Amino acid sequence: MKVTATSVTLLVVAALPELCVAAPAKRDDDSSAPTDIQILNFALTLEHLENAYYTQGLQKYTQQDFLDASLPTWARGRWNEISQHESTHVSFLESVIGDQAVQPCNYSFPDTDPISFVTTSFMLETVGVSAYSGAAQFLSNSDYVTSSAAILAVEARQSAWINSAVLKANPWNTAFDTPLDLNHVWTVASGVIVSCPSSNMPLPVKAFPALSFPADAQPGQTVQVSFNATTTSEQLYVAFIAGLGATFVPLSPQMTVDIPSTLQGVVFPVITTSNTTVTDDVTIAGPAFLSFDFNSNGEDEL
User: d(Cα 269, Cα 25) in Å, to the nearest integer?
Assistant: First the structure.
């Protein structure tokens, strides 16, 4: 079973061989760094989302639905366990934050059957890992760092299990996972959030315009992307964020881009005005979520 490249509404290099690698995205102004409570509420917002997703999904899809979709007999039981994990994460963060804890939002999830439930679950868990690793730099309380790392590890195990045991693909990406900027995480998450309680603490995040890639996009292809944003920059780039760096490729006037043939695993493409950095002030749209499977010999599975 294969996961196709997906995007959720839920991008100077002169030529492809001259790709650049840069550090992951950072916030524009370190002086406006979020507080520990804001970061914990950011994490709680994501945990509420995951908790709602699994609660609703397991109510919609029965064991027979899973079997009819040719999923393993044991798969749904594991998702019950994942659902319990997310519920526990919510309760734990609420107890730490206290009366400032944010409440759940209203959501519109894209799954329509057990298979799309599985692939969306993989995306949510993977983005969750990137969210925790990217936000860790803002935590000053060592106890919060430790507990966040403990949650991150579980999210990573869940992501690996989904893509390997269930989807029969690679359990990891590269030697490094991908820490994402808070706003990049929020861009992906906001695609499924309809509204949040007005009483919730404002989060120090903003969503960039959504970025879409073709569902069957693969490394080595030239594909057309779409996004709804305006810019005065004469040249845009697609920064393919993976691991601790990003690979920059020019975006053509026809909105096409050459996906680097060397990319494997989960990649987060972002439209930027820079070919050297992926900070908030140069981000135009995205990220999208792409997953390029590879086998145990390190070969692409197209």
Answer: 12
The amino acid present at 49, given as its one-letter code, is L
* Residue partners of 165: CB distance under 8 A and separation at least 6: 72
Q: List own/partner pairs for 68-77 with CB under 8 A and 24 or more apart.
A: 68/114, 69/113, 69/114, 69/115, 71/114, 71/115, 71/118, 71/166, 72/165, 72/166, 75/118, 75/166
Predicted confidence (pLDDT) per residue in 280-301, tens digit: 999 999 999 999 999 887 887 7
What is the tens place of the pLDDT at every residue in 25-83? 555 555 578 999 999 999 999 999 999 999 999 999 999 999 999 999 999 999 999 99
Helix (H) or strand (E) holding 124: helix 114-135
Going along 91-187, which residue ranges are E strands?
Answer: 106-107
Q: What's the CA gap between 242 and 247, in Å, rounded? A: 8
